Amino acid sequence: MTTHDNDAFKPIATVDLAIFSLSPAGLSVLLVRRANAPFAGEWALPGGWIHIDKDLDLEAAARRVLKEKTGVETPYLEQLQTTGSAGRDPRGWSISIVYIALLSADDVEKRRDAMAEDAEWRPVEGDGVGFPIAFDHAALLKEALGRIRNKVEYSSLPGHLLPARFTLSELQSVYENLLGRKLDKSAFRKRMAEADFLEPIEGELRRASNRPAQVFRLKDIKSLALFDRRI
């Protein structure tokens, strides 16, 4: 076995993020326009090199990149996959650790001024954004969307796209948006109660069309509650 000390034999190591939020257009993903080659001027998922002098671990690297691109620190971050090959980056052999991040619309709006100038929210269309994006990021985005849509069926994931305080009607609306179908109101509320991942905020009600609605929050903002059956 030959050992190489030359940097030319070291793979490119990055973290890439599929960062999702909700907008009036529905589920949206954050893209950045690349300033430099390769793929200069094209859109891509946000990403960055792993800084071995700064990043204590892979999650720290992902959180640093997220903060640089959005100005936001999300409590929910999930590793999607690790991918690598000689052909995915024209600069050479590369490895990418891919993460999913979920941001509430409130967080996005509050930190809009801190978002990188080259970053832009784009609505999700099917399994992508309706146009090509750089590297193998279209495939990574498709994988991320598949993970999200699958987990919506059996977890509290939609709650992480909402502001810290929300009503059950608002939560149901997000589930329906991500599932692409309407849900029975009574059955939905029964399932949420059984899953036991919400806590009512005492004394806080929100005006609704018929009567004041109780306001809730997630019991655990850092992890998902899993249901015993699909919604």
Automatic annotation (TrEMBL):
GO terms for molecular function: hydrolase activity. SUPFAM superfamilies: Nudix (SSF55811), Winged helix' DNA-binding domain (SSF46785). This is NUDIX hydrolase. The lineage of its organism: Bacteria, Pseudomonadati, Pseudomonadota, Alphaproteobacteria, Hyphomicrobiales. CDD domains: NUDIX_NadM_like (cd18873). The keyword DNA-binding does not apply. It holds the Pfam family NUDIX. Residues 10-145 form the Nudix hydrolase domain.
